[in-house]
Amino acid sequence: MQATACAHSNIAFIKYWGNRDHALRLPANSSFSMNLGGLFTRTTVRFSAALSADRAVVDDRVLEGASLARITAHLDYARRLAGCALRAEVISHNNFPAGVGIASSASAFAALSLAAAAALDLRLSEAELSAYARLGSGSAARSVPSGFVIWHMGEDHRSSYAESVAPADHWQLTDLVAIISTAHKAVGSTEGHQLAESSPLQAARLATSSARLEQCVQAVLERDFERFARLVELDSDIMHAVMQTSAPPLLYWLPPTVAVMHRVRQLRAEGIGVCYTIDAGANVHCLCLPEAVERVRAELSAIEGVREIRAAQPGGSAWLES
Ligand code: PMV
Predict the structure, then answer these.
(1) What is the pTM of this model?
(2) Which atom number of ligand 1 is nearest to the Cα of residue 188?
(3) Which domains does the chain have, with CATH numbers?
(4) pLDDT in the model for residue 100
């Protein structure tokens, strides 16, 4: 009763921020992302009668308290489906260094869901697996399918899942992640989602987000970078406007974050194919066309406060290892 699974991290072009149902992580809007090839979590789950409690080790660190409880709650769902009461051992590794500032909850919960389902021989469809991953971390729903992925907000647990709209090889975008801070976020996304509706701007964001998503999917399908760049930056800026105007307000940007945003805008004005998007942190994801990658990398390295640059290209779906 053991399985090992891997899943990539992902970066959203049209963001998820705010829930309609916090317990089920039913989002307030649909979102759209690309899996990040090369950046993944590998997780082994082993159910055993010899264990008296769940145990989890992430990057050689034994989890306790709330982090362990979150994993136990996630495993409980699979145990309920399988009619199994056995406790489990979870061993997980991120292939990107922990604390580098790249979010790992999406890849972690996608890999955990696939490994747990396989270990218990649950035959879940991709949509069912994605909905299951969503319960652990919303964005994990998007790390289950391949390539370019829409997470449909849905109306209930079953209908809120992600699916691929184009395979990883559809468009050779590169995400150059400018690492600015590796500090642990003061306010994590689970808490952040609960603050979203306290911003007077969230209603305006939600009223316009499905139109942005439709246009952004179209831009990706047509590989229309100019249109894509405008929509991606607009959607990130609107999400951060909501974050910055919630109660309490969340300001994830640091001075180098803003410096990168300016540089990216200047470069695009000069005809270089690059745009930015920022999650709940200070790091900036710079999405580049193939011919722009080396120039953008050099420009980012020259910005004070950019500590490191990580590169990723579109990645495939979550997978099982034998
Ligand atoms: O899945 P969570 O709860 O970590 O939320 C992710 C939130 C953002 O990264 C800010 C946006 C997104 O859609 O990934």
Answers:
(1) 0.97
(2) 4
(3) 2-167 (3.30.230.10), 174-312 (3.30.70.890)
(4) 63
